[in-house]
Amino acid sequence: MQQRWAAYGGRSLFVLLSAVPIVAGVSYALLYSLGLTGVLSEGFTLAHWQEVLGDAAFWRTLGFSLYVAAVSIGVALGLSLALVLRSPQAFTKGALSFFIYLPLSIPAIVMAFFIFQWLGKGGWLSRLSHQLGLIGALEQFPDWVNDNYGIGIIVAHVIMATPFFTIFFANLYQNERLGEYLHLAATLGAKRRQRIFRVAVPVLLRRGLATVFLYFMFVMGSYEIPLLVGSQSVQMVSIRTIQRLQRYNLGDIPEAYAISVAYTVMVVVLLVGLLWYNRKQMGRA
Amino acid sequence: MLTIKNINKQYKGEAVLQGLSFTLRAHEMLSILGRSGSGKTTLLKVLAGLETADSGQLLLDGQDLSPVPANQRGVVYLYQEALLFPHLNVFENIAFGLRLRRRPETEIKEKVNGLLQRLELPGQARKMPEQLSGGQRQRVAFGRALIIEPRVLLLDEPFGALDAETRRSMQQLLKRVAKDFGLTAIFVTHDLKEAMLMGDRLGMMQNGQLKIYGNRAEFIADESTGALDEARFWTDLQGLKLTK
Asked: How many separate domains does chain B show?
């Protein structure tokens, strides 16, 4: 009986701390975007939603966020899988297993500042290129920070995500007994390339799909890095939302809330899709 | 025919295989009985090309296997667990070896469906490994190995993780399949009865050394195999029952 009450208590605390604030926040944002609350509220209206959904800049923002997340995660996954499959033991034992944790302890804002110092026109790489005679003037250094392709944002996220996925996949490699799968595949006739692409990569990605997806969403919604090294003309969702919320024009606030609700709906739809896929894979669909 | 001549292997200065020599005839199943740590698994891994021997010679039908990598030996190693690829369904798990060899789709379908029937797995083709019982998984693992027609099949305690009843039915199935396919195989186990049931010939592995017996009577007569102890136990038990 006492155990049951303890379980109820634990669940209630979880709901109170995690679900309630999110549901309350999204509900408030939805009401605000529909004109049902807020300082300039004039009753129910779809005008703010029509404004947001009809604005090409919103879709560009969403597309840019997806692009940055896809490229960052894609590159980080490629690098981390290559590292783990090259030396599976290196990241679970020895000095490397300690040093790989260091980039994870750096806050995003510090990483963004580091990228700014490193890749900016007046940054270290630019100065080094100038000293080496590769460029005639610092201004000739390519736009890798605050650029329209999000190179600075992507590099920062790749540096942060690669150690995370490397540790994650190194542990999965051990837990999933991938070494034995690869041995078995070899005796069945698989060459090294076939073992990697037909066994190792699918097994690791399948087991790590949920984590990869969550990190993808984290990158899509990231704020500090695009704020410091992102472009002003092509923005990520979080930057555009916050800018609209903080403008002097109070009329922009409902649109900012509409953007955040639309983004939340998209994330939830993708999450449900992922859960459905996972359950189907597990044979419970 | 597989011929092993004077194989030695050490780990960190400790001898795991010591001067192993034996011959495995074509279409024969050799049962090797041995306790944990006796070197059974190392022997199989050396034969499969997953470990290298420090010295000695491995000949398969006259071909020296030592320089041949694992993926070109045609020697399939099966673990205690089925280790079905979790991202592939039953059909694709069995078809794995043929897909590697880029065989035509019609051949793959024909061979996989044939094996599904012979391994008593009808209607399971589209299931994922998580949806199968332990025995079914092991059948799929056999199918995945058999489809590439291995020159030698190495079975490392394949039924060790199964319950007693499933284990019995799997032993029967493997006996039948081995006969049908004319398998050349080494079956490693620590279970005395299983060793006697599965092997055409019997061997005993102790401290990295392997003794192959000329016939079943020799195996039973050797105290170290434990066969006599087992027989005495059942005789005594029978006597106890009768006197009661």
From this structure: 1
Beta-carbon separation of B85 and A199 below 8 A = yes
Residue at B128 is within a domain: yes
* Side-chain-side CA neighbours of residue A244 (13 Å): 22
Looking at the complex, does the CB of residue B68 fall below 8 Å from at least one CB of chain A?
no
When CB atoms are compared, the residue of A183, A190, A202 closest to B100 is A190
Predicted confidence band of residue A284 (pLDDT cuts 50, 70, 90) = very low
- Min Cα–Cα distance to chain A from B145, Å: 7
Average the pLDDT over each of A4-8, B34-38, B172-176 and give the range with the smallest value: A4-8
The boundaries of the domain holding residue B191 are 2-212
Query: pLDDT category, A282, cuts 50, 70, 90?
Result: low
CB contact under 8 A, B97 and A202: no
More confident position, A98 or A25: A25
Domain membership of residue B221 (yes or no) is: no
d(CA B168, CA B178): 15
| Strands laid side by side in the B185-189 sheet | B75-78, B152-156, B185-189, B29-34, B201-206, B209-212
Reported as a single tens digit per residue, the pLDDT across A186-209 is 999 999 999 999 999 999 998 898
Domain ranges for chain A: 59-281
Q: How far, in Å, CA of A258 to CA of A47, rounded?
A: 10
B180 belongs to a structural domain: yes
Is residue A178 left, alpha or beta, with left meaning phi > 0 and alpha meaning psi from -120 to 50?
A: alpha
The answer to whether position B226 is within a domain reads no
Hey, what CATH topology would domain A59-281 get? MetI-like fold (1.10.3720)
pLDDT > 50? residue A17: yes
Q: Please write the tens of the pLDDT for every residue from B73-84.
A: 999 999 888 999
The CATH number given to whatever domain includes residue B87 is: 3.40.50.300
Chain A residues lying within 8 Å of B49, measured CB to CB: 186-187
Contact B190, B158 (CB under 8 A): no
Q: Hey, are the CB atoms on A189 and B127 less than 8 Å from each other?
A: no
How confident is the model over B198-209, as a mean pLDDT?
90
